[in-house]
Prior knowledge:
Layout: E1 6-15, E2 21-25, E3 31-34, H1 42-48, E4 56-61, E5 75-79, E6 94-98, E7 104-113, E8 116-120, E9 130-141, H2 144-149
Amino acid sequence: MIKKDSVVSLSYTLKNENGEELDRSDAANPLAYMHGHGQIVPGLENVLEGLATGDKKEVTVAPEEGYGEVQPQLRIKVSRDKFPADAKIEPGMQFSSKMEDGGEIPFTVQAIEGDEVMLDGNHPLAGKTLHFSVEVSEVRPATAEELQHGHVHGAGGHQH
Length: 160
Ligand code: ZN
């Protein structure tokens, strides 16, 4: 049964409100995570608590339990000349930017309007309601080493 410190392998399909598939991980290539450590969105993690191998679940996750609401202050305009002159800037490009607090946020280029580049530092799934179909493929206790490292080792996890 899934509880804190369980290592859980999942296959899942993630769709948006319109039923369009955004992401999937099939049974041959499951997602592995350590339960109770905030490694997956809270709305999904909470629902998985108590499930066992072979259990299936349909889960709808609101933005506040998913990737958060869209933060307008992360949508910014930057003058084109802040970028290297020879850099090719195109919509969809991503790069990291240092914030005042020292953290790094990945920004995505939304558009280029004249001399200005429109950037968005929100997670692509921020503000979205997420529909997960999940199947639990394996549940096991974390090893002492995994607990020490704070992540899963082996298939679907870290290889080192
Ligand atoms: Zn490790």
